[in-house]
Amino acid sequence: MNTSASCYHLPNNKPKTVIITGGANGIGAKTARTYHGHGCNIIIADLPSSSDAANALIASLTEPSRARYHPTNVTSWHDIQALFRLSKETFGQIDIVVSNAGTMESKGFFDFEEDEHGELMEATEAGRVIDINLKGTMNTLRMAMHSMKSNPPDADGTRGSIVLIASTSGYFGGTGVVSYISSKHGVVGLSRASQSVARQLGVRVNVVAPFFTPTHITSGYSEKWKESGLPANTTEDVANAIVSTSVDPARQGHSMMVAGNLVREIEEPRTTSTKDWLGEEISDIMTRGGKFFNDLGGYTLPQARS
Ligand SMILES: NC(=O)c1ccc[n+]([C@@H]2O[C@H](COP(=O)([O-])OP(=O)(O)OC[C@H]3O[C@@H](n4cnc5c(N)ncnc54)[C@H](O)[C@@H]3O)[C@@H](O)[C@H]2O)c1
């Protein structure tokens, strides 16, 4: 893995510019600080309610002039447009984007709340979680790919690098937090679905999937976790995994799971062991189906039903 100082600079020696959504707190804040420590320009894109935290973080940096805060709600396409436009006006091209903004539900999906007529009420909290974690990540990824495709290629031929923050909840469902787990499975699918276009555009798209890390999201049970003696990430562990994944030219379509002090790539073993978990026959059908779509030049989209 090449993560020398040059990874954080463009061939003309200017610092790379990194946008971190949800960068005012928790994992995002540590990630922003780590990129800055490597000499990058950083842009913290977070909600207006996090402006004090973002501005305090910037004020504490060694070179605040290499950092900006843009009030951004990732669910708003207008905000995402403004974020990229203003960031480019300030620093030139955007080289790395970390799609990290995320939230956890504050009401259970199967809490069957009824209205005054005894009717089951809609799970509005589920929509909020899917909007922030999945739609927000889709907005960020789409705009980042569009922005990066016209960057000149880096020394390794890459025009940009995007890291999507999923979770171990993108692979497992045991905790039963329905909306969060559904959204994070969506983020893993988003990365897989983006690989073909990403390669064509010269952009690397990877996932980092953390396990338990003490932040606001886990504050409801983090003391009990500590007492249990189970291994925990620090925000620094996760930030280091995000930063090294983003600058490593060998990472493309990978997913780095971070648990305790362990980091494992899990997409390649999943692919190479397909016959083991799917069986030889279905695996063969899937391979032939994949070749069919490749030969076709991609999935032929149906007309929208009127
Ligand atoms: N902490 C963990 O154990 C853990 C585990 C797996 C994955 N993650 C993921 O890591 C990421 C960071 O979470 P964290 O643990 O640091 O939590 P956190 O609550 O400390 O930070 C989340 C940040 O996202 C911002 N945010 C929320 N909604 C937003 C929106 N609509 N637009 C812009 N910003 C928004 C918040 O203001 C906050 O600054 C999330 O995607 C989370 O799902 C966390």
Keywords:
306 residues, alpha/beta, eight-stranded mixed β-sheet, 10 helices
Structure, described:
The protein is built from 10 helices and 8 strands. It has helices at 26-37, 51-59, 77-91, 124-148, 178-201, 222-228, 235-247, 267-272, 274-278, 280-296, and strands spanning 17-21, 41-46, 67-71, 96-99, 160-165, 203-210, 255-259, 262-265. The model has no long low-confidence stretch (mean pLDDT 96). 43% of the residues lie in helices and 14% in strands. The chain has 2 domains: 5-270, NAD(P)-binding Rossmann-like Domain (Rossmann fold, 3-Layer(aba) Sandwich); 273-306. The chain is of the alpha/beta class and 306 residues long. The chain binds nicotinamide-adenine-dinucleotide (NAD). Nicotinamide-adenine-dinucleotide is lined by residues 21-22, 24-28, 46-47, 50, 72-75, 100-103, 132, 136, 165, 167, 210, 212-213, 215-218.
Write the layout of secondary structure elements.
Blueprint (H helix, E strand, L loop, with lengths): L16 E5 L4 H12 L3 E6 L4 H9 L7 E5 L5 H15 L4 E4 L24 H25 L11 E6 L12 H24 L1 E8 L11 H7 L6 H13 L7 E5 L2 E4 L1 H6 L1 H5 L1 H17 L10
Parallel strand pairs: 1-2, 1-4, 2-3, 4-5, 5-6, 6-7
Antiparallel strand pairs: 7-8
Helix pairs in contact: 1-7, 3-4, 4-5
